[in-house]
Amino acid sequence: MPTSADILDEITDVTVKVLGCPAADITPDARFADLGSDSLTIVEIGEELGRRFGVRLSDDAIDTMRTVQDGINAVVDLAPESYRKDGAAPATASAATAGRPVATPASAATPFVRPEPVVLVDPPVTSRIKRKALGLVIAMAVVGVLVGGFFGFGLSAVVSAAGIDDVTLPPLPSASPSPVETEEEVEPTPEPEPTPTEDEPEEPTLVAEQTQVAPGQRFVLSGAFPEAGQGARLQVQVREEGTDWGDFPITTTTRDGGEFRAELFTSRPGEREFRMLDEESGDTSPTVDVTIG
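^ thats the sequence. predicted structure below, dont judge the formating
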């Protein structure tokens, strides 16, 4: 059975390879988030740690690994007696972990590139409507010309048959312009000046770019804490139906204007509710629902 010191040595080696942080910073009370970990790299650390000790850490155990001591506790009761400190896992461990993705160190991982959004272009419906309307107008104009010519030709034939060559109409009486009444100018009533009011504080915002993702797929939470300004530390919190709020193993800091952006990752399916907590002021953002699976 490995000791806590053995597990700490392995966690230090794995964390340095995945995160590239100094080994001196890795102590039992060190937070993975402060060492530079996020929801994806913490999974890599947990899976590589389980491979070395011949165990399989559950998704719940990995999701709750906030400190190095949490990682030690997750392994200490699961490591088999056949653990070898050279890092090789027993054959049973290889079989237990078959089918699971092998963690790749951060230094060799291909950087994540967000695909360009695909823009769907609607058919040119407006152009087709304009062409149909123009054709209808032209057809109506042609019919009007034909009908007018027909009636004009018939009327001309009737006048000619009646022997009427010239028709003199009496002049129309000239209409005298009616006097225009002028209204007296009324001075406008001055409008009262608006009373200045104090600006109300802007409320925090939170938006999930995707409300349903597959297990293991990244999703992004973004928004702003306008009153917090730049550099405020925000903690991602999560809860399921019928449970209290708990800290998700990832934090972020606000940029100019209090804006923030956090990328999350979890492989456990189910409907979750997320929010952001300002650790200094205790203010929380609105909540968003994300379905995993």
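Helices lie at 4-19, 41-53, 59-63, 68-76, 91-96, 125-162.
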